[in-house]
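User: Round two. Same drill as before: sequence, then structure, for each protein.

Assistant: Same drill it is. First protein:
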Amino acid sequence: MVNPWVVEERVALVPVIGKAVAESLPHPGLMEARIRYGPHPQQTILLFWPSKPKGRRRSAVLFLHGGGWSWGSPHLFRFVGHFFAELGFPTVLGGYRLVPGFRYPAQVDDVCAGLEAGLQVFAGRGVRVEQVIAGGQSAGAQLAALLVYERSRRGWGDFHQELFGGFYSISGPLSFDDCSQPALQKMISDFTENPINREAADPIRRLRGDEQVPALLLHGERDPLVDVENTLAFAARLAQNKTCRVEVNLVKEGHHADLAGIFVEDQPAAQILKKWLLRCDRKSPAKVRPLDAVRLENRPGADQAQG
């Protein structure tokens, strides 16, 4: 028997798929590279950036795809890379190893390694980056939240908090206690495997109440998989620090995966995302480069760039 949320998702996705395919075709003026940062086929990232230095932003954008930690690839989201790069942002579409073959924290390890590899390639090609705006959709937003707000690092790379100029979430499961749908609870259990990992992977538990990284949280009002309460609870926790800029936008008639339409349709949420990105970029530090703050090591496959 097909879960009702699956049917609702598929119906809502129909108008988006054709536009996403069209927007995935090569775009004039944009450069692209595919990088293998590890031996597994899923340890792959895609990079996009404007070919001309004039108009490039000082911030890079990291986007992590969703798929319940068990499905997906950056290759399916090229239209997202084009969206950010056409705004002038050097962009990293992150790929990571998937469930059931790999469980948490393998995915976070891959996100960190992929971002390091992407920044290294940008530096080697003369693309200057001063900070990173990180986020994603659904499961990708959860992984991005851990990347940005986890400060103990525990071997997840040597990223300093100052590297991140913003965090954005699109339909992210950011508070596991607010995930009421059985299908999502099953995905979380498969991803984390045990209670200790479940607690460690729960983004809201990583917050200390003194966060400074600004956040934009987008969520469909009719999301049938990830409860809206995830976004509201996470936002409330961030807002405990009165100096942390937190913006929440509940997309009218929005479901879950169909919020990918933000990247291919001129809808209000798309304009909100664009304006927020530009505000974050304007606030990037003029004399700080992530290559000074991040240990960049040679990664296997870094010489396999194509573009």
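Second protein:
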Amino acid sequence: MISCDKAAIICNKTQYGEASFMDKLKLKFHLFICKTCSAFTKKNTKLTVLCEKANLHALSEKEKLKMKEQLQHNS
């Protein structure tokens, strides 16, 4: 059986479509046994869905530089 730390890593990989079939299988088995990790996975999935609905995005490097320049200019 995998550790809870490993389960959390696989859970995150699964959210982003990066987990292998074997990782998913190991995670499913772990979640069947560990209720704490099962609750974490449910909350993590809910958070991912909410972030997708919110249409969140990160700033591009160009946007970051522009913001940094504006902050330095206003200081």
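Residues 4 and 37 are 7 Å apart (CA to CA).

User: Perfect.
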